[in-house]
Amino acid sequence: MNATPAPFTPPDAAEALAGLNMPLAEAMRSQRAIRKLHFEPVDEGLLREVLSLALKAPTSSNSQDWAFVVVNDAEQKRRLVRDYQRAFKLFGWFARRAAPDEPTRRQLRVSDWQREHYHQMPTLVVACYRRTLQHRPVGRPLLRVTSFYGSVYPAVQNLLLACRAVGLGASLQTLPLWLVRSTRRVLELPPEMVPVCIIPIGWARGRYGPTQRPPIEEVVHIDRFGHQPWRSARH
Ligand SMILES: Cc1cc2nc3c(=O)[nH]c(=O)nc-3n(C[C@H](O)[C@H](O)[C@H](O)COP(=O)(O)O)c2cc1C
To answer: Domain span at residue 148?
Structure first.
């Protein structure tokens, strides 16, 4: 006979906040995408704290032209991700069939689980940036205004690290915002405000742990591309 799983009790917010004393390197080494989240809401004070740490990040020319739309309302969450859930239901099935190995299939199953339950994630944070002429990339013609993305991601990484430290599960995602017009409509964004990515936040069902990345010898080049003395020292 299957035992009914015990209901999840969120950790005490004050205890969770103490996690911010975690050594920075430990947080960086173990901050990975957590997609399976408990549905219980997250304490508002805790959310405010991780968001306030996110805002310590740098922006181009210190413009700080950002907005973070924190979506807790059930109906707003449903409307925000409805098209994504529908469109990618089929995609997930095909992707799993085409997956080359079991680890990839496992990751796709987790992504599928998240897509199916996306509207039940406790909090969806949509990071946005104001598109202005100020934020053009260096060396590009005046009218190319694409550099604003670079002013959002440092804050998003801060947010992910702060979530990791307090024990909240989180991940950076862009696919659920693939229909930008519908995101704009649901969130009532002004025309110049561009939704960049979405970060579902909640108590982690999975665990944080070491991330898999290539060794630095493989990706670091000294003085010019292709000169990799660290690599040869290792082999
Ligand atoms: C720009 C960007 C977009 C991403 N978009 C998605 C997404 O749409 N859906 C998703 O599940 N993960 C998304 N991710 C998360 C990555 O898949 C994840 O960070 C990567 O696979 C490494 O996983 P790990 O941090 O758990 O090791 C995105 C990450 C980045 C940096």
So the answer is: 30-234
Which atom belonging to ligand 1 lies closest to the Cα atom of 171?
15
Q: Kindly state whether residue 168 falls inside one of the protein's structural domains.
A: yes
Q: Residue 142: pLDDT above 50? A: no
CB under 8 A, 24+ apart: contacts of 205-214: 205/34, 205/36, 205/37, 205/38, 205/169, 206/34, 206/35, 206/36, 206/110, 206/169, 208/30, 208/31, 208/32, 208/34, 208/164, 209/30, 209/32, 210/29, 210/30, 210/32, 211/29, 211/30, 211/31, 211/32
pLDDT-derived band of residue 141, with 50, 70 and 90 as boundaries?
very low
Which residue minimizes the CA distance to atom 19 of ligand 1? Answer: 33
Q: Tell me how far the alpha carbon of residue 233 lies from the centroid of ligand 1, in angstroms.
A: 32
Pocket residues: Cβ below 6 A from ligand 1? 32-33, 35, 111, 171-175, 211-212
pTM, two decimals, is: 0.91
Query: Is residue 116 a part of any domain in this protein?
Result: yes
Q: Which residue has the higher pLDDT, 5 or 41?
A: 41
Q: What is the CATH number of the domain that holds 139?
A: 3.40.109.10
**For residue 229, is it within any domain?**
yes
